[in-house]
Amino acid sequence: MRYRFFNARVLTMEPGRDIFNGEVWVVSDRIKFSGTEEEASTYCESHPDEMLVWDEEIDCKGNLLMPGFKNAHTHSAMTLMRSSADDLPLSDWLNKQIFPIEAKMTAEDIYELSKISILEYLTSGITAAFEMYLTPFSVADAFRDCGFRCVQTSCVNNFSQSVELLEKYYKELNGRDEFNSFILGVHAEYTCSKELLEKCAELVHKYKAPFWAHIQETESETKECMDRYGMTPIEFFDSLGLFDYGGGGYHLVWTSDKDREIMKKRGLYAVTNPGSNTKLASGIAPIKEYLECGIPVAIGTDGPASNNCLDMFREMFLVTGLAKLKNMDASCIDAAEVLKMATVNGARCMGLNDADYLTEGKLADMIMIDMSQPNMQPINNIVKNLVYSGSKSNVLMTMIGGVIRYQNGKFNIGEEPLEIYEKAEKIKKRIYGL
Amino acid sequence: MRYRFFNARVLTMEPGRDIFNGEVWVVSDRIKFSGTEEEASTYCESHPDEMLVWDEEIDCKGNLLMPGFKNAHTHSAMTLMRSSADDLPLSDWLNKQIFPIEAKMTAEDIYELSKISILEYLTSGITAAFEMYLTPFSVADAFRDCGFRCVQTSCVNNFSQSVELLEKYYKELNGRDEFNSFILGVHAEYTCSKELLEKCAELVHKYKAPFWAHIQETESETKECMDRYGMTPIEFFDSLGLFDYGGGGYHLVWTSDKDREIMKKRGLYAVTNPGSNTKLASGIAPIKEYLECGIPVAIGTDGPASNNCLDMFREMFLVTGLAKLKNMDASCIDAAEVLKMATVNGARCMGLNDADYLTEGKLADMIMIDMSQPNMQPINNIVKNLVYSGSKSNVLMTMIGGVIRYQNGKFNIGEEPLEIYEKAEKIKKRIYGL
Questions:
Q1: Which of B81, B311, B325 best probes binding to A when mutated, by most A CB atoms within 10 angstroms?
Q2: Is residue B170 within 8 Å of residue B428, measured between CB atoms?
Q3: Which parts of the sequence belong to the Amidohydrolase-related domain (chains A, B) (predicted)?
Q4: Among residues 300-359 of chain B, which lie with CB inside 8 Å of chain A?
C-alpha cells in the first residue's frame, strides 16, 4: 500500500530536529519520505519519474505522527493472570499464584492469550514488543499472525527450556518471517545454574551475540547472588563472558556503581519497568545514575500479571516521576529524554535499528496522536504533553510495517477481539478449574 | 429524561455488595432504581402505578455502570500552564512560572480555561471536582454552564482574595444553582498570616462549617511553620479552632503521628494527590498510616500545571503503587480501598453525600466502563482491573445529574471543544505575549 499522510505535525525523533508541519509517505513497509510541505514539493519536482499514485491519502488535521513506542520487556501471554494475583508480596505472587498456573499452560494457550496483549499494545501506540515466555514458537506465531513486530529472548532456566532449545530458537526464529527475531537470553541468575550459564556463554561466543536476562529486579535477588558467588548478577554474568557482545538486562533496580561500570564498559542497555517495580514493590531503578554514566535506558511494561496495564504512557510518566521522587528533584529526567527511551532506545536495544526514526528508508512503524483531546490542550509543548498528560485515548492510529493495525478504536489483526476474549475465557475456565 | 440502562454489570459501591448483572433507571437527576433483572421485575410488579415510559433505553452490553469518580482537589484553569513549566524545582515552578502568569489572568480567562479541564474530567469518568482558584464566581459559572458538579473552596491568602470575600463566596455560591457549592478554606499556612487565619476561624465558628487548605505538601513548608510557630500547620490550624467542625487538607504528604491524631480526633479527610506529588518531587503521602488511623482518604489530580494529566485512573494506580513502594510491601492498600477513595470518600469529603452510591434516591452521577477493551480482558476481577489496568479509554459514558455529558468520545457541554481550544489559544497568546 502507498499512503500519503498530510497536514500532520511530524516528530521524527532524529536528534536536534524539532516537530514540524508536513507530510509522511509510506510505500510498502517503509517510510518513503518525511518532511515539510515545502520539502515535499521540492522532492516531487526533483523526482518527476517517481511520482506516486496513492492508495490512500490521509488528512491528519494537525495531529501528530511519530515512531511507535517499543515495549522493551513483556510476557504477553500472562493476560491469563491479570487481576487474579494482585496485592500480594512478590514471593507469594510468583510461587503460589504464577508458577502453578504457568505449569498448566499449553503452547496453544500461550498463542491465544498473547493476542489480548497485542490488542492492548496497539491501543497504546506500541509497535514492537521485546518478549520472553515459555513457548517461543507459539509466541512468534501469535505475533506473526497479528502482523505485530516481536523480538524474543528465551526464559531458559533450570526447570524449563534448555540451552539446546535456546540455540534452536535462535537459529529458527531469526529470519523465519518479517515480524519475528530472536536474541540470546535466560530467565535470571536465581533460576539458572552456573553450568547452564556457562553453556549459554559458549553460545554467546559462538554467535558473537548480545545476551539478556531479568537482572537485579529485587534487593533479595541481588543479595542471594552475592551470598552464592560473592558477586552481583551483573558481575557474575560478566565474569562468565555473557556480556562480551553486549546485550542488557530487564528491571535493573538494585545496581551498584561497580555494576554500572560493567554495564557502561560492555555497552549494555538498561530496560526499566517502573509500573511492575511499583506494583510489586521491587523498588525504584537508578535512572538518573544510568543517564549520568551514559548507559542507554529503554522502557518495558513487563507482563500483564505484574503491571497490570500495557500502556507506554503510564510507563513514561512513571520513569520520570519515580526518578523525581527518588532524587527529590522535580527537574530530574526531562520529558524529551523519556520519549527517546520509549522509542529510539527501545528500537535499538531490540536490534530494530530500522525502527528508530520517522525518516526515509526506515520501517513504517508509526503512530498518530490525537492533539484535539482536552489533555493535549492548549498546545504548549507537545513532547511534555506526550510524557506528562498523554494517554492511550490519544492514539488514533497504529501502523506496523506499513499496515494500519489499529485506527479509531478498530483493530485489524485478522481476528475480532471478541473471538480472542472468548477463547481466553475458555482457557481460563479450564486452567483455573472454574 | 428517563433512562433505562439494562444488560449492565452494576457496581453500586455500597459496602459488602458485589458487582451484579442488572439494570439502573434514571429519572430526572436521580437514580430511580438499581438492582438485578429479578429485582427489576419484582419492582415493576409491586409498583404497577409507577410504570415508566422511557425516553431512552440503553443496552449496556455487559459493560459496567458505577458512580462517577470525584476529583477531590484541582485548579481547573491552570490548563494555561500545562506543559509550559515542567521539569523544574518546586520553588522555581511556583515563583518564576506560575505566579507571574496568574497575575495576568482575568476572571473571564479563568472561565474559559476551566472548560478544558471539564472536558478532560468527562473523558476520565470524573463527575465532580473539588476546586480552588482565583475567581470563584467565574469558576462556578464555567461549571454551571457545562453542567458539571463543582464544590469550591477559596484560595484566600495574604496577596489575593480576603476573608470578607470568602464569606461572600460562601453565602452566595451555596444554593446559587444545582451544580455549585462552596466550603470554607484558604490557600495554605505559608501564604496566610495568623491574623487572616484567626478571622477565618471566626467564620468557621459563625457557620459551624468545615475548613480546608493545602497542608503539609512539602517538607520545607512543614519545617518553616515549625520555625514560625513551633507547630506543624495541622497543629497550628487546630490551635486556632479552624478544625472545630471538621474539614481536611490537600496533599498531606509530610505528617507526623501527632498530626494524624489531630486529624483523627477532628474527623478530617486527607485528600491525596499522588501525580502532582510525584511530578513536583514533593514526596509520598503516608496513606497506609492514614488508613490504619481510620482517617478517610480521597483522591485529587491537583491542577493541570502540576500533574499534568487529569486522570483518575492514573491517580488510583499511583495511590496504591506509591504506598507499595514506600512500605516495600506489594500487599499494601488493596484495590477495593482505592476505588472507595476515588468515589465514596471523594463524594463525602466534598459534602456530596448524595453522590456516593449507585442506589435509589442518589444523584445520577454515573459512568459506564467499557469491559470489551483488551486492558480489561480476561475478566478476572473488575475492581482490580479498574485500579491496575483501567484507563480513560475505558470510559464510554459520563452522566452528571441525569444528563449524559460525554458518550463515545462526544461531548455535550453546550460548546464544541474546538471553540474552547481556540479561545484558550487566544488567551495564551495574550498572556505569554507570543
A1: B325
A2: no
A3: 65-404
A4: 304, 307-311, 314, 317, 320-322, 324-325, 327-335
Distance of alpha carbon A140 from alpha carbon A181, whole angstroms? 9
Q: Give the distance from CA B289 to its chain's centroid.
A: 22
Residues 113-132 of chain B whose Cβ lies under 8 A from any Cβ of chain A: 116-117, 119-120, 123
**Which residue from B minimizes the CA distance to A332?**
B87
Contact B184, B211 (CB under 8 A): yes
Contact A381 B86 (CB under 8 A): yes
The arithmetic mean of pLDDT across residues B422-426, rounded, is: 97
Residue-wise pLDDT for B235-253, tens only, equals 999 999 999 999 999 999 9
Q: What is the mean pLDDT of residues A167-190?
A: 97
The three three-digit cell numbers of residue B162, written as one number: 480576603
> Which pairing describes strands B2-10 and B20-27: parallel, antiparallel, or unpaired?
antiparallel
Residue-range domains of chain A with CATH: 2-67+355-411 (2.30.40.10), 69-354 (3.20.20.140)
Q: In what order do the strands lie in the sheet with A297-299?
A: A184-188, A211-215, A247-251, A268-272, A297-299
Give the per-residue pLDDT at B51.
67
Chain A contact set for B314 (CB, 8 A)? 314, 317
ipTM of the modeled complex: 0.97
Residues A71-125 have pLDDT tens digits of 999 999 999 999 887 887 777 888 888 889 999 999 999 999 999 999 999 999 9
